[in-house]
Amino acid sequence: MPELPEVETIVRGLRDPLLGKRVVGARLRRKTLYRRGSLPLRRLIARTVVSVDRVGKNAVLRFEPTAVLLINLGMTGQLELWEAGAQSMGNPKHFHARVRFAGGTELRYFDARRFGHFYVAEACDLEQDLNIGPDPFIATPTHLRRVLYGRTAPIKSLLLDQRVLSGIGNIYADETLFLARIDPRTDGGEVLPNARRVLSSARTILNRAIDHGGSTLRDYRKHDGSKGGFQVHHAVYGREGEGCIRCGRAIHKIMLGGRGTHFCPRCQK
DNA sequence: AGCTTCGCCTGCTTGC
DNA sequence: TGCAAGCAGGCGAAGC
Fold first, then answer.
1. Per-residue pLDDT tens over the stretch A205-261
2. Distance of C1' in C15 from CA in A46, Å
3. Residues A54-81 pLDDT 10s
4. Less crowded by CB within 10 Å, the N or C end of chain A?
5. Domains and CATH numbers, chain A
6. Is there a contact between A132 and A54 (Cβ–Cβ < 8 Å)?
7. Known active-site residue A2
């Protein structure tokens, strides 16, 4: 599942190869992958990439003359950087879009479950149009306290809400709460005194994950087709029944807000 | 408004 | 062995 570390890894890999390149062809075959209000992908033809960044879990490419391409990978989206003459790594069965650049480089999009979204606009206010909050590297404890104040939903569910904090998905929500030693079922409003610890834990986990190129459970791949390495460092996610790395007690798995949630009942209060 | 559930979608896993 | 049901979940919509 491409969360912040996975998208950050992909974006870093795409930045140098794409900066300054001019689009000579672009096509998205499956219309359902467009986010509402998007211009067609071919609108990018004859424009040049001037920046490649990440906002929350989205990859954001900006162009001159003015245009912006926003890609959300959903659950199984893959961005492959393809060079002329190379073998494609993606499954052709799930090939949905390509952007061709002068010189022969292509950006290819694969997505088995098709939960991803493309959004093309002449200009856009990202935070407003995406309706997302700051990511954990940008957010302050004050911001977190403000958005959690009085909330009765479980903190785990609120960490998944991109309007509260952007970039965190199911894996890193569980890992963050383990490091912060907070029970995922705790009411959001009761976490206010620990907002600083939640934020610093999120940053620690996300930074570690980025250092390892993200977590590959099944589908996630970097831009060059290789896998991430952080999955072997998960403390709780996917470790139901195994021993807690801190106290040895079995990790529990419950459903919270419809999501599988992993935690140590002894270490997380 | 806030909280929860559902639907989208495919492929791997589980159970009969 | 084979088939059907179960499960995974990011995100937006719908229901309460």
1. 999 999 999 998 888 999 998 999 999 999 999 999 999 999 999 999 999 988 999
2. 46
3. 999 999 999 999 999 999 999 999 999 9
4. C
5. 4-129 (3.20.190.10), 141-263 (1.10.8.50)
6. no
7. yes
